[in-house]
Amino acid sequence: xxxxxxxxxxxxxxxxxxxxxxxxxxxxxxxxxxxxxxxxxxxxxxxxxxxxxxxxxxxxxxxxxxxxxxxxxxxxxxxxxxxxxxxxxxxxxxxxxxxxxxxxxxxxxxxxxxxxxxxxxxxxxxxxxxxxxxxxxxxxxxxxxxxxxxxxxxxxxxxxxxxxxxxxxxxxxxxxxxxxxxxxxx
Length: 186
Prior knowledge:
This is RNA polymerase, sigma subunit, ECF family. This protein has 8 helices and no strands.
């Protein structure tokens, strides 16, 4: 059995409450979750207080706590991981914003390769709100933004996950970024 199918089967077993499947799943998904966290945290300053390992552990704990989730396959798992990563980073940004309270803020460009939670928590929260707003009228584009920006997935990985062509994901990414730019400049 190849790794993709092995993970899919473990996810299904774990969804059914199989404790051994939970234990066997972690080492198989850990490296991919770590890669996602690494990509995300590379956008941060070197001495950032949120560390890659802690982020991976938080995401995994959040994911395995989803006892009501019927994992369809590994792609579904990683899509949910992207959502969990977003939630954790947004929660972190909210805490940072609460600590700093007030002061003028500078707009930052919406780029998937740049985010500094310590200095731009408010902008991250604004982006989070915009992704939610985008989802109300175009769910797929919001998922593309979430997976691309928050988990650093490639266009090809997103296309596989959403079961669409890479050209479709490219178009969605371009349109979603344009919409977000317009919303940010209002």
